Amino acid sequence: MTPGKAYFTSDEIRTLSARSDLWGVWLVAHCWGLILGSVALFAIWPNVLTFALAVIVIGSRQLGLAILMHEAAHNALFKSRRLNEWAGEWLCGRPIIADLPEYRRYHLTHHRYTQTERDPDLRLSKPFPTTRASLRRKLIRDITGQTGLKQRAQQIMFAFKMAHEVEGTPSSQDLAQAFSGPVIGRAILANIVLFGVFWAITSHAWAWLAFWALPLLTWFQVVLRVRNIAEHGAVETSPDPLRNTRTTHANWIERLLVAPYWVNYHLEHHLVMHVPAHNLPKLHRMMLDKGHGDRMTTAPGYIDVLRQASSRAA
């Protein structure tokens, strides 16, 4: 049963769940517009400031692509199912080395078993609250690329495993099979296209490394961790959907850098998971109007979330 049926009528849920191809086009175009615009800004005014700004904005929009892939996983990005699958895979998932079908299976399990021992995301939320020193170490590993390199290595080894079950060092044939497989092979193809686009914008062959690989290994990992903490870190371990998930109020700078595309309305998403992201603020207001505000787990901002997540005594 959808948890939201305890709070909304079927007509309300039906209205909130309406998909729109126009919204889908706008969101994907907005995300890629910010990415390519950041690269173009550096190309026009190359300096340390525009470089740092591009890395941060692009890393945040890489999270935006992950969020839009998440929308596609719920069949909520486009009204057209075919367009939903194609855009979710090729325009959102593949460029950040993610697989839409595999993510969908994983993520729907999370929805079914939220904050229970069968929740595959429990490992992300269970360590919190932790100490300030522990959180600081995690964020340092993220921003220095240690987390990103570890995750990419795990993806490559998983590709080897899926391509061919071997013992010992993979052979050249295993390598070819792994990188021509559906996950890594298509991700490489998508990134070859990006390599050409970034080179064309900047006239530099190193632009893909600087403006895609670097953000993906650093800033993307930071905001991904902050988002994961905000959603289920340091909340109640209970079946109550108003207590085991958090909505975080975000100002404009947080929406730009940490919480793109209404991802901060996570409690509302868990109530009715197939509601398109742009309708989540409306769902939130309806919950308040119905008098549920006092029971909902919310935070005034992401700084407050990190404060709660690092509140355990050393």
TrEMBL record:
Fatty acid desaturase domain sequence ranges: 49-289
Record carries keyword Glycoprotein: no
One Pfam assignment: FA_desaturase
GO terms for cellular component: membrane
Name of the molecule in the record: Fatty acid desaturase
Natural source organism: Roseivivax marinus
Molecular function, one GO term: oxidoreductase activity, acting on paired donors, with oxidation of a pair of donors resulting in the reduction of molecular oxygen to two molecules of water
Transmembrane segments: 23-45, 51-73, 183-201
Biological processes, Gene Ontology terms: lipid biosynthetic process
InterPro entries: FA_desaturase_dom, Fatty_acid_desaturase
Keywords: Membrane, Transmembrane, Transmembrane helix
Top-level taxon: Bacteria
